[in-house]
Amino acid sequence: MSIARRLADKAADVLAFFLRLGGRMFYRYFVEALWQRHPSFEQADTRLSVTLHFPDPVAPDPSERGMVERLFAAYRAAKQVEQAVDPVFHPGGGWKRVRDKAFAPLLEGVARDDLEPFHFFLANFGSWKDSTGIETSRLVHEYSVDPRKRRHYEQRMMAPMIQWWLTSGGGGAALSELDLPRHGNQCGVLAGESLVTSGAISSEIYGRMLAGLVSGERPVIAEVGGGFGRLVYYLSRHLERFCYLDFDLPETLCCASYFLMKCFPERRFLLYGEGEPAAASIREFDFIMMPSFEITRLPARSVDLFINENSLGDMPGATARFFVAEMCRTADAIWHRNHEAWRNEFEEGGRSLINREYPITPEFEEVIRHCDPAGLMVKGRLDYDADMFWYYYRRRVGPSQS
Predict the structure, then answer these.
(1) Alpha-carbon distance 282 to 294, whole Å?
(2) In 125, 181, 254, 297, which residue has its Cα 20 to 30 A from 228's Cα atom?
(3) pTM here?
(4) DSSP 3-state of 376
(5) pLDDT in tens, 92-108
(6) Shortest CA distance to 205 belongs to which of 341, 385, 382, 370?
(7) Is residue 96 part of a domain?
(8) Is 388 part of any domain?
(9) Average pLDDT of 286-298?
(10) How many distinct structural domains can be found in the chain?
(11) Could you give the CA distance from residue 244 to residue 306 in angstroms, rounded to a whole number?
(12) What's the rounded mean pLDDT across residues 366-393?
């Protein structure tokens, strides 16, 4: 062993002793911060140019006004009802704090009956400097103002992930398959001419896979907590026709509705206050965007595939159990990706469930359980602390009744 290696080992022993005094999480945070200061080198594949992209705010497009007025009316109607519904539908697990800070322009717009801040936020939610919980814009902004972190993000996180996708995860697809539409003023990195986010890589992989789990001329796909619609956007690239239902908090639902309406201007959308998620609506509309408390109106066995990505693990236990029960009631198949062992501890008390605790009913059989490969690579290196697993369940009985 070289002298430098022996000295490094001794220094690590001393440093580790003091770090452990700060507790397990402090130790992990310090090691992660130290990784960000790892020397940056030229990328192995010089053909892949990766540049951080954090755009300035854009002015809202006046031509969107009619669409945004519909979103404003749906959001206002949902907020009027939200406080009166069962508390299981209220934001928990830190979401209330995120909502009150990051989504303040939506709340203020409705409180003052002012469309301008509402529209400005939707036009820029993808590069919002406060954490919205639906994309990593706050972190990308933090990296953008620090040259060292910028290089780390470009060369140590995103470039290896994109290269991994090109060689292993993308099934031989072109880099353009990762390109995310800019609607909402999205941030991430520019790889060639494509805008890529860390979440886009996993969404492309799972969108392609989920499209293969449904059949028929027009499958019905529902989601609890669809974020801003990234997963269904990538899924849509592999399905010619489908009906998609999203049940979420009113704030994130606004972002998803805006993004998807911009992506699919020719499709028919049903917003809250314009109708219910009933059988007739499923036949008539392509996208049905509803606040989470409307899930109880969804007919039994009306969904071919119900999906959830990450959000069950962000909910208090009682809330997660409720939504899993609704998924089991309404779907013929269930796919979810959540934490296998790591729990959220909530400020208001209690903690989240983990995968083995979700009450999937006996009517369903577990078909596949698999670790999340994109999650292992999300930091640009193998991260064995990323304990995300995905599960696919199928109803044991016959096909859904239409």
Answers:
(1) 14
(2) 297
(3) 0.87
(4) helix
(5) 767 888 889 999 999 99
(6) 370
(7) no
(8) yes
(9) 98
(10) 1
(11) 10
(12) 79
∠ CA 235-240-241, nearest 5°, is 95
Distance CA 389, CA 383 (A): 13
Q: How far apart are CA 106 and CA 115, in angstroms?
A: 9
Q: What residue ranges in 210-314 does DSSP mark as E strands?
A: 220-224, 243-248, 269-271, 287-291, 305-309
The span from the CA of 335 to the CA of 162, in Å, is 25
Read off the pLDDT of each residue in 375-399 and give the average, rounded to a whole number. Answer: 75
Length of the chain measured in residues: 402
Residue 139 dihedral angles phi and psi, to the nearest 5°? -70, -40
Residue 269: what residue type?
F
142 lies in some domain: no
CATH code of the domain covering residue 339 = 3.40.50.150
Structural domain range at position 222:
199-395
| Token pair in block for residue 45 | 């594949």
Four-point Cα dihedral 43, 175, 56, 125, nearest 10:
-120
Which amino acid is residue 314, in one-letter code? D
Q: Is residue 110 part of a domain?
A: no
Q: In this model, does residue 400 exceed pLDDT 50?
A: no
Q: How far apart are CA 196 and CA 175, in angstroms?
A: 9
